[in-house]
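Troubleshooting entry. Yesterday's outputs looked truncated, so today I'm pasting the complete records for two proteins to confirm everything comes through intact. If either block looks cut off, that's the bug. Protein one:
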Amino acid sequence: MDERESRGGGARNEERNALVCANLRLVRAMARRFSGRGAEYEELYQCGCLAMVNAAASFDAKRGAAFSSYAYKFIEGGMRECLRKARRTALPAAEGAGFEERSIASLSVRAALSKLDPRERAVLKSRFFYEKTQTETAKALLLSQPSVSRIERTALFKLGRELRL
């Protein structure tokens, strides 16, 4: 018996492993849901599994919550971070487009952005140009995080409609 097991760490690790193994279907389902948004299924699954391990490490069953409910936000956050990283690494690949194509696209986006109201532009600028989280954006613009989420969703919808995406 090693030192961790004598302190009860072995039993805790076994509980954690059991929680993780019992909830792999949740990670698979979420990875399927997020796939096709810029990252491969396997990459999302891996990020989700790592997030679930982190959730299992901090989970306290005494609080009465189901582990799957507790882990959901961890997994979702891990997958969203994975998608953000995939988008950041995909941008340099787009740099290979011709100068003329980039110029036309840039002008189209600028024209579409100019049609948004100033608050929508500020939210998109903070989120996508400065890569701030919704919470950080909310604090900077003196808004609530749910308001930032709604404004962002509306602004992206308007941009997509304007650019006909």
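Protein two, checking that the full record survives here as well:
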Amino acid sequence: MLLASPDDILGHYYLAMALYKTEQHEAADQEYNNALLASNLEIIKLICLDKGINLYVQKKYKEAIDLYKTVIRIDPFYSKAFFNLAIVYDEYYEDKQPALKYYQDFVLLEKDETSARIQAENRIKALKEKLFFNK
């Protein structure tokens, strides 16, 4: 379905976010897809990031990772995608090397002292200790 205006795109997007918040994840996925059909790259980036979060809470980690990587292909300087990738790899995969890499990428891109940056710096330190000193 081709959408006619940005208002239609945002309508699907906001509906998807509302469905996500009410834990109607399958319906949220469909609305995210509808929003993507006629979006520009900036909007697609945001929708993919939010859809990735929706997939993550459904434990669809591979699909979430694919979406975060899509965001990075669209905008290789969008730090939130790196942070979300790091979290998925860190929490749900045994191999922690990708998590370390994505946390490091995030810290390089995130210049402000946000709570996410502090969390990433702490995880980098912990992962380095685990990977390189506790063998």
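Both blocks look complete. Sanity check on protein two: Helices lie at 6-21, 25-36, 41-57, 61-74, 79-92, 97-109, 115-132.
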